[in-house]
């Protein structure tokens, strides 16, 4: 019952890798989706965010105003830490519940946790394997500008706000180079899937 972490910086192609692993049969748990769900109207997490940062973080209907919250905490390390102290425990609990449910459905399942903030929040969890999606910062910035419509300043700021590439790569057991064509990325994922048991055994033997 291997539990695999998949991480990567913004616009690194991580979601493409996750979809390919799911197509091979992996059970993918999406951390970003969990974050959205634990912040739903009426949730304790959303109430705590409003109490900490003000009711201006809520839209008229009571949902989280993500743009307002982002504007409030972006670039403020202390504010980010306070937000993380609210959100991360709830995400950790819900992700653990989903891991357990996936293994209950299939004890031999490969469960992949698609998690952007692995380095920042969960690097020390007992992963069977850590996969890092990697493309150079200039490639990711071009994707943010061309595919997501950001200006260069905002794109650079988003990249700079995340863990540096060398820190992320330092915890990788497997690096998927996503800087080339899509077919090349998918080929690497297919190869990894075929070798997954061996890769997991090598990591386990090294620990």
Written description of the protein model:
The protein has 207 residues and is an alpha/beta fold. The chain folds into two domains: 1-26 and 110-207, 3-Layer(aba) Sandwich (Rossmann fold); 32-107, Rossmann fold (3-Layer(aba) Sandwich). The protein is 59% helix and 12% strand. The chain has eleven helices and five strands. The chain has helices spanning 14-24, 31-38, 44-53, 66-73, 77-105, 118-122, 137-148, 152-160, 165-170, 182-194, 196-206; strands spanning 3-8, 27-30, 111-114, 129-134, 174-177. It has a five-stranded parallel beta sheet with strand order 2-3-1-4-5, sandwiched between helices. Helix 2 packs across helix 5 (77-105). It is globular, with a radius of gyration of 18 Å. The two termini are 18 Å apart. The model has no long low-confidence stretch (mean pLDDT 93).
């Amino acid at each position: 019952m291997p539990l695999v972490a998949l991480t990567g910086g913004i616009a690194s192609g991580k979601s493409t890798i996750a979809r390919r692993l799911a197509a091979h049969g992996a059970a993918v748990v999406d951390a970003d989706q969990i974050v959205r769900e634990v912040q739903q109207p009426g949730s304790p997490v959303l109430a705590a965010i409003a109490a900490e940062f003000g009711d201006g973080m809520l839209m008229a209907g009571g949902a989280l105003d993500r743009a307002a919250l982002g504007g409030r905490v972006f670039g403020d390390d202390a504010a980010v830490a306070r937000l993380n102290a609210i959100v991360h425990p709830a995400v950790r609990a819900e992700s653990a519940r989903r891991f357990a449910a996936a293994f209950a459905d299939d004890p031999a399942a490969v469960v992949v946790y698609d998690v952007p903030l692995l380095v920042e929040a969960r690097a020390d969890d007992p992963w069977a394997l850590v996969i890092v999606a990697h493309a150079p910062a200039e490639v990711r910035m071009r994707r943010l500008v061309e595919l997501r419509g950001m200006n260069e300043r905002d794109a650079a700021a988003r990249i700079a706000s995340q863990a540096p590439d060398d820190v992320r790569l330092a915890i990788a057991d497997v690096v998927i180079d996503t800087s080339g064509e899509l077919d090349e990325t998918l080929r690497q994922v297919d190869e990894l899937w075929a070798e997954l048991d061996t890769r997991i055994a090598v990591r386990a033997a090294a620990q």
